[in-house]
Amino acid sequence: MSVQGQKAAAKGAEMSAEWNADQARKQAKFEEDTAQTNMRRKRENNKRAIARQRAMGARSGLTDAGAVGDMLVDKAERLQTDVDDIWNTASIRSQQLEGQATMSLWEGEQAQTASKYAIYGTIAKGVGQVASAGMQMKGALPSGGAAGNSTAGAPKAYTVDGTY
Hints:
Layout: H1 2-59, H2 67-140
Helix pairs in contact: 1-2
């Protein structure tokens, strides 16, 4: 029964590890998808911000050349950095989750290995107990010594040469 319980525990650990790994991968995918959506929204907002800046300059009679153009390029670069930061954060988090998935599977394998050794130990212990019980029973039975092979009172038998 102990061996069966250890097998069930190993199977449970394996299933748990696979489920945890699957959940970590799903979370990584979700976070990447969310980051893609947030990056798209951020780019749209950045375009609007640059368009507002361009419109303000045009109302003032400035063209997109010279200092105004440089300012718009600088603003676009800063806004793109925000988009890049969104992806970097999501990418790092996704890598962490993939690492957790891998670790979960490794832990499941380790639990399987430990369970196998526990099963072998349980079997060896059972064999040892059976052997010990057998030795105890053998010691309790009459043996070939004086108590077990007493011939007192037994009829004498003829030997091959005809003597007693």
